[in-house]
Amino acid sequence: MGKDKLVLLIDMRSSKTEVDSLLKKAGLKGANAAAVLKGDFTALKKDGWTVGEKQGNVVEFDRSLEDLNLNPQTKPYLITTKVNDEDESPGYPADVNFGINNFAKVTVHELTSGITRFFLPGYAQNRRVLLSGDFNNWSTLKGTMTKVDSGWIADVKLKPGKHEYKFIVDGHWINDRYNNLESDHDNNSIYYRYNYTFKLSGYTDARKITLAGSFNNWDANSIVMEKNGNVWQKQLYLHDGTQAYRFFVDRKWITDPANPNKIQGADGYTNSVLNLGETVTFKLEGYTNARKVYVAGSFNNWEHGLIPLTKTKTGWALPLIIPPGNYGYKFVVDDKWITDPANPRNMMEGGIVNSYISVKPNYMFKLSGFNNAKSVHLAGSFNNFDDFGYTLAFNGKEWTVSVNLKPGKQLYKFIVDGKWMIDPGNKLYEPNQYNSGNSVLWIE
Questions:
Q1: InterPro entries given for it (predicted)?
Q2: Hey, CA dihedral for 93, 97, 103, 106, is it positive or negative?
Q3: Strand 376-380 to strand 390-391: parallel, antiparallel, or no bridges (unpaired)?
Q4: Is domain 277-359 in CATH 2.60.40.10, yes or no?
Q5: How many whole angstroms separate alpha carbon 297 and alpha carbon 116?
Q6: CATH number of 196-276: 3.20.20.140, 3.20.20.80, 2.60.40.10, 3.40.50.1950?
């Protein structure tokens, strides 16, 4: 096979649902899965696909990448129902602690409306330019840029964090030549959408002020503060969580005078502390005779005795800032570990059952029609298909659990009274090694 072809493989033993999903991935909206499975390939041929060789039950089709304005790959680009369980949606970079942009000439701007504008200068003679990146699944169909007098622009709504992107100019992929940040793989341009500004007032006579923290391994030279009137400041992307930091003013360390939260570091220095994330209120009713009550979980590496709850009239409570994610937790009442009696949802970690909480969940799993079930659990690619998974709670109508999921493809199953099953409310599924299938969910 050549390197300039988009290859579509259809296993004729696949279900209609699988083929429907496959045809959508290939951009064939008008094709009929039932007809294809009967050997009628008319719709594919009309769309420019060529019928190739047949190997057993698998029929191969191909089409020119240039016709589709797709990025030529080192291997032919495959569209197939046989998707590896470990595959992820392309283009979503790993989490990073922080990020600062580095442009020779700024080509990406944040508008006051909250929209991010990408600008490609020049290319006045070209007919079609697209913006493709992790924010649109590296699409070659979406992201059409608008031609202006000095180049091309596209407006995108981005979440704070690290984003990779490229431009497609009349079918040819190029990076942003004014952006000095590139990924190690594929030379994609990197843009950080900021979410935090560090500020230090005064010190107008200082020659140089830098910022260092747990997020950049306390490097005192890499983040230089910028003077703006009577305020030194620096914008950057900063990952949610607990972040310790301090300023280096003319080679002398100081904490942030505007931040009352301080902590003693292992190196003997006092550091300022930021807590970024969602506020979660932990409550434990009763136990009014207890001397001390703490909460611990995977959000603080299960360190005992660090997060005390405050006594109330009816029990104990504490608002706590936690980064988005899925966590196990327990209360520690006078040195005795207990699950949360008010929370019916659990998960297992290291063979131990803990209470389960999702912070800033972006999807709720629901299962109807099993009112008499004794237990329902959720297992998927997001928790390594753990046998215990996440416990669903019954609300009188259906079983539910909310989960914080990363963008891309997620595979999952329900476990009802010990029996594994695909989601009867979801038509999308794919085969697995056990010939029982996994339900498929795509998170934007």
A1: AMPK1_CBM (IPR032640), CRP1_MDG1_kinase (IPR050827), Ig-like_fold (IPR013783), Ig_E-set (IPR014756)
A2: positive
A3: antiparallel
A4: yes
A5: 36
A6: 2.60.40.10
Reduce the DSSP state of residue 122 to 3 states and report it: coil
User: Rounded to 5 degrees, what angle do the CA atoms 211, 212, 213 make?
Assistant: 135
Q: Which two tokens stand for residue 213?
A: 């923290």
| Residue 67 DSSP class | H
Question: Domain boundaries in the chain?
Answer: 5-80, 98-193, 196-276, 277-359, 361-444
CB 340 within 8 A of CB 329: yes
Please give the angle made by the CA atoms of 358, 360 and 363, to the nearest 5 degrees: 75
Coil, strand or helix at 27:
coil
pTM: predicted TM-score of the whole model, two decimal places: 0.61
Contact 216, 100 (CB under 8 A): no
